[in-house]
Design goal:
A 6-stranded mixed sheet has the order 1-6-5-4-2-3. The chain is elongated and about 50 Å long. Helix 2 runs parallel beside helix 4. The longest helix has 21 residues. The chain has one domain: Rossmann fold (3-Layer(aba) Sandwich). The protein has 172 residues and is of the alpha/beta class.
């Protein structure tokens, strides 16, 4: 005969699983053009624009975050941003365009808690060979915050997806 502990666990386990899954943030990649090997390139510039109104701050954050993570994880000699080095000559350009943004600010999260929802950023990304203008990779990334996270977390998740695809091309 099952103990009361087991009966309680069976009763609350589904709710616990749902609650824990709501606490995770995520990212997703959708590749629309087969990427080329990237190990022949030495320098990269990250450039982010947006087709969503009033997203300058988020575009700057995405650009900086992709560059920072790429500097840590990719073997390029130099990784620049459009904001800091717009005229620099590079081998590749990571051209990301924010196509959807659902904000959750720290203030909104503090006022509404879990009810504030999840932040989300979706960006279409092209990796372009500067010398020829050839698109060497094209994909869409999506970053989503946890139920306790903010827009910054969603931007970080999207940035990680960009770098993950680029890293896969070095090994692939």
């Amino acid at each position: 005969m099952p103990s009361n502990c087991c009966l309680s666990l069976r009763r609350y386990l589904p709710a616990l699983c749902i609650a824990l899954s709501a606490c995770t943030s995520s990212g997703r990649i959708h590749v629309t053009a087969t990427p080329a090997r990237l190990d022949v390139y030495r320098t990269v510039r990250v450039q982010v624009s947006s087709e969503v109104d009033d997203t300058r701050k988020e575009a700057i954050q995405l650009e900086a975050t992709v560059a920072a993570i790429a500097t840590e994880k990719l073997p390029f000699q130099q990784i620049l941003t459009q904001r800091n080095a717009p005229e620099s000559s590079v081998d590749l350009r990571i051209d990301a365009r924010i196509v959807r943004l659902e904000r959750v600010t720290v203030e909104w999260r503090a006022l509404n808690g879990v009810v504030a929802g999840r932040a989300r950023v979706i960006a279409d990304v092209m990796v372009i060979e500067e010398a020829t203008g050839r698109v060497v990779a094209r994909f869409t990334v999506e970053g989503q915050s946890s139920s306790a996270g903010t827009t910054e977390q969603a931007i970080k998740r999207a940035s990680e997806q960009v770098v993950a695809l680029m890293a896969a091309r070095f090994n692939g």
